[in-house]
Amino acid sequence: xxxxxxxxxxxxxxxxxxxxxxxxxxxxxxxxxxxxxxxxxxxxxxxxxxxxxxxxxxxxxxxxxxxxxxxxxxxxxxxxxxxxxxxxxxxxxxxxxxxxxxxxxxxxxxxxxxxxxxxxxxxxxxxxxxxxxxxxxxxxxxxxxxxxxxxxxxxxxxxxxxxxxxxxxxxxxxxxxxxxxxxxxxxxxxxxxxxxxxxxxxxxxxxxxxxxxxxxxxxxxxxxxxxxxxxxxxxxxxxxxxxxxxxxxxxxxxxxxxxxxxxxxxxxxxxxxxxxxxxxxxxxxxxxxxxxxxxxxxxxxxxxxxxxxxxxxxxxxxxxxxxxxxxxxxxxxxxxxxxxxxxxxxxxxxxxxxxxxxxxxxxxxxxxxxxxxxxxxxxxxxxxxxxxxxxxxxxxxxxxxxxxxxxxx
Length: 409
Description:
The protein is mostly beta strands. It has two helices and 40 strands. The protein has a 27-stranded parallel sheet that branches. Strands 5-7-10-13-16-19-22-25-28-31-34-37-40 form a 13-stranded parallel sheet, with no helix packed on it. The longest helix has 26 residues, at about 5-30. The radius of gyration is 29 Å and the shape is flat. About 40% of the residues are buried.
């Protein structure tokens, strides 16, 4: 057999093999998303805290140091239940992927140190704290400098959490906070914080405090489905881009105070029986208050002060003390930035809508059974010399109350 014939046969065999491979590849291509390539299992090393002392072998302090020295993901558990009384802050947890699981049976007593600093710091990627109680006399129990990390099913008594600069995609959920100064503080440039399904009670200053001195980036903060009660103020915001969704907020002095903020969405919350205000928008623009139930608040359901360009729509606003909606000194240079109050049910307040030195669009509301007037127009407000009210009042869906005030009354 000649070399030429061998070469031809080799070429034919290669061509056939290539054709078969190509045929199989074409048939499998539509199903590639269903084909999984197995990954090697993640190795998680388990560390057990054997001693509830503050210092010494097998204490929590010792275990954290050991976890920080190893590279693989770690899980910290406890042999027994009880309390650990700290004499100084715990070492920061810097190991990526680490989890501390208190199992609902461990209490960190930081009462000797919490007034002067943080009891513990998370500083890694993908860290989780579960089922831990931290108690103290004031300040912050936990400082979060971590990314893609969270706190779940924990109890904070007298201490709070600070989500600090450099942290992002941090969540706090299913936890209980009581008697804190601030329960959860979101500091400058801590983006994508998610505060969900917590019970926050009796904070001396605020349940959630997000007041940024620098506004280089949007906060992208979400506060959702929390029970917020008995606090000085429920939520205080001075940020760009935050959402309050489906929270129950009651028995606070003020439920929500947005100050010098923009792009705030307050949607589908129940805000009731707060002693002074339900919602306050102060020097806040381009924000929306929609589909909330706002009722039985001591002074007003919603107060807008020097806050043009907001949308108030689809809310149930009733049985508030003096005002359902009060708008003061919120005129804007551009008519595009006037507030719009549309499609709300406003009933059984002192004044349904009160305005002073403001000119909103009022349209398609149901305004009924308010005790003083449906719409009260004050031409000027204190400290607003030269600013007058000139509202645009269009057809309401139902209006049984009077329109009072204004320069032509």
